[in-house]
Amino acid sequence: ALDAIAEHEDLGAFLHVNADVAINHARQIDERSESDDSAEDRPLLGVPIAVKDNLCTSDMPTTAGSKVLENYTPPYDATAVQNLRKAGAVIVGKTNLDEFGMGSTNEASAYHVVRNPWATDRVPGGSSGGSAAAVAANLVAAAIGTDTGGSIRQPASFCGIVGFKPTYGLVSRYGLISYASSLDTVGCLARSVDDAEAVLMAMAGGDASDATSSYHRDDANNTGGGDMESTRFALVGAALGEGVDSGVSAAVRAAAATLESLGATCDGDVDVPNFEDALPAYYAIACSEASSNLSRFDGARYGPRASVEKGASLQSMYDETRGSNLGEEVKRRILMGTYALSSGYYDACYKRAQQVRTLVRRGLDEALEGRTCLLLPAAPTVAYKLGEKTDDPLAMYAGDLMTVPASLAGLPAVVIPCGMADAGDGTMMPVGLQLIGKSFSERELARVAKALE
Ligand code: GLN
């Protein structure tokens, strides 16, 4: 893994690689005594895994892709990371991301861009773009990502791999640098559903350090017993019509036909109430939470502090640190979030978005009633060219239309590759199929996804 990472440095997938720590850890595993039978409880023994750089690691820096945390090494491991280590995984490095997870192409990293291994002039997606590129280029067996509004699923789709976003709360958020706390989830990117499932379940579990973490892990473990004959699904009509590349919708429809031929029952296209309202509600809520979460980066507690004139006010130190170390996209979102939460606009923006969130959740619950899952693309397009959307934030946000509904509802969703489509210039790029399931139905989703592999 370390050789492959060095050989493909030009992809920009990693922000830190700790070769010494990784080798030492791997050596300890190799040299463990014959009588050590703990391997049975360690399903990831010796497996090289990369971790997105917004999850705290005590032996490697954790920057969240931001200059405001440059060279910061946390004093502890995130619970998800701790659980991976317990399962025997060897953490080889930290992957690149859009600053604080805010973006869809990885171009908002304060360090460098990531290139899509299928076509290096194209984006890998984001914000877990480094994790997706590292897995797609076979640099590591699996990588940890985080998904607030699509950041595991859309890069998995753009890079032709599997991306698993769990039910909100299945994996502890302790030690995840918060973007939008009510939406943030920790999940996995891998080259097969089996791998993604194994890594996800190794991370899962209730945690006293995260009050929103769930002790439902056993449910997630035990619901995989269904068969194809009892599997019923529908397609999300709104995600297959106008504004969606024809190659993308064709590939998704073909996957639905395959699932039907395997014995599942297809209810055709259904209308999911309020599906399209999820996008504006998501951006209002995510930005609001971000504006509050990011106030801790003030130069006093973590990372570099801007130098100000002797005798200058504390406020000017904050201003200088934040002004010079936070990126454009992050500032834009802090401003939008502060606006949405301000007294004159709270009812019209934030409160209304929360009401819409409830409607989106109800809409999805209704569409999932009596069904195993819903099928839809992960994104309306395949991976586009680097730089193509950087000047148009709204166009970039619009690309999240298909991933944010499951995020607002807290539901699990898995993305698997389902073919290739023309990117418009004859370049064939991967298409991702998204399956959304009921709360804690991870095993069930994995079962259906595996049938399509
Ligand atoms: N692209 C979305 C955003 O910019 C999703 C990001 C994420 O899931 N972290 O907010």
TrEMBL record:
Active-site residue numbers: K52 (charge relay system), S127 (charge relay system), S151 (acyl-ester intermediate)
Reactions catalysed according to its record: L-glutamyl-tRNA(Gln) + L-glutamine + ATP + H2O = L-glutaminyl-tRNA(Gln) + L-glutamate + ADP + phosphate + H(+)
Domain Amidase: 1-445
Subcellular location: Mitochondrion; Plastid, Chloroplast stroma
GO biological process: glutaminyl-tRNAGln biosynthesis via transamidation; mitochondrial translation
GO cellular component: chloroplast stroma; glutamyl-tRNA(Gln) amidotransferase complex; mitochondrion
GO MF term list: ATP binding; glutaminyl-tRNA synthase (glutamine-hydrolyzing) activity
Pfam name, any one: Amidase
Enzyme superclass (EC): ligase
UniProt KW keywords: ATP-binding, Chloroplast, Ligase, Mitochondrion, Nucleotide-binding, Plastid, Protein biosynthesis
Enzyme Commission number(s): 6.3.5.7
Transmembrane intervals: none
Function: Allows the formation of correctly charged Gln-tRNA(Gln) through the transamidation of misacylated Glu-tRNA(Gln) in chloroplasts and mitochondria. The reaction takes place in the presence of glutamine and ATP through an activated gamma-phospho-Glu-tRNA(Gln).
NCBIfam families: gatA (TIGR00132)
Known partners and oligomeric status: Subunit of the heterotrimeric GatCAB amidotransferase (AdT) complex, composed of A, B and C subunits.
Family: Belongs to the amidase family. GatA subfamily.
Miscellaneous note of the record: This protein may be expected to contain an N-terminal transit peptide but none has been predicted.
Protein name as catalogued: Glutamyl-tRNA(Gln) amidotransferase subunit A, chloroplastic/mitochondrial
Organism: Pycnococcus provasolii
